[in-house]
């Protein structure tokens, strides 16, 4: 029958990939392990920052103007950074995902950290 071979192939493929817990681990990430976010008067630069799991983002608060970094509540989100100026504050990300954050002082001042395996 014509469909026998494709079916056999599919069965093998499913057997190879269907393990779930036995699936191979992700290869090492090519994403950086560190990144820096700076702040203009009302913007995080860059808006989106990508790092590897276990990586650290440094938030650089400028002198002369207050900001904070409040993360959307979700599993793996780091501790918020309360109102700060003229300082660098690190946050480590140990779980893959996308973590949105904003500055509550400046409406529309938003950013995200994308943590990849
Ligand atoms: Cu701000």
TrEMBL record:
UniProtKB keywords: Copper, Metal-binding
Top-level division of the source organism's lineage: Bacteria
Residues in the signal sequence: none
Pfam families assigned to the protein according to its UniProt record, in alphabetical order: Copper-bind
A GO molecular function held by the record: copper ion binding
Positions of the Blue (type 1) copper domain: 43-115
Protein's name according to its UniProt entry: Blue (Type 1) copper domain protein
Organism: Gemmatirosa kalamazoonensis
């Amino acid at each position: 029958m014509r469909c026998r071979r494709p079916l056999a192939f599919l069965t093998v493929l499913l057997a190879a990939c269907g393990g779930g817990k036995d699936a191979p681990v992700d290869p090492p990430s090519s994403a950086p392990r560190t990144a820096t976010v700076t702040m203009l008067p009302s913007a995080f630069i860059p808006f989106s920052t990508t790092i590897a799991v276990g990586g650290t983002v440094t938030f650089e608060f400028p002198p002369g103007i207050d900001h904070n970094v409040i993360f959307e509540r979700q599993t793996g989100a780091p501790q918020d950074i309360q109102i700060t100026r003229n300082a660098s504050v690190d946050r480590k990300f140990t779980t893959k995902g996308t973590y949105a954050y904003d500055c509550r002082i400046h409406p529309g001042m938003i950013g995200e950290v994308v943590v990849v395996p």
